[in-house]
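Protein: PTS EIIB type-2 domain-containing protein
Species: Alkalihalobacillus trypoxylicola
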Amino acid sequence: MKISIVCSSGLGTSLLIKIQLERILKEWNVDATIINTDVSTFNSEHHDIVIGAKQIIDSLEIKHHTEYIALENLIDPDYLRQQLLSNEVVKIWVNQ
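Structure follows.
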């Protein structure tokens, strides 16, 4: 499984979300490759899930083979956990 976290610069916000996501996936025993990237170099061709701030996700070209999680709260790990669990692909990963 491959997850991309996209933000405007590929540093601050995406790194914060990546750290939170790694902790959550570890709790769930889910193995995934997680990369953080900036919106200008992002390519959604080879990702299962793309996560980012709502305004960033809304600006991306949507690919039908990719799941998108648009976050309105970038700081709260419980909110991130809730958004992940509301995604059907993540539910499958967690229940394997």
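Remarks: The chain has a mean pLDDT of 90.
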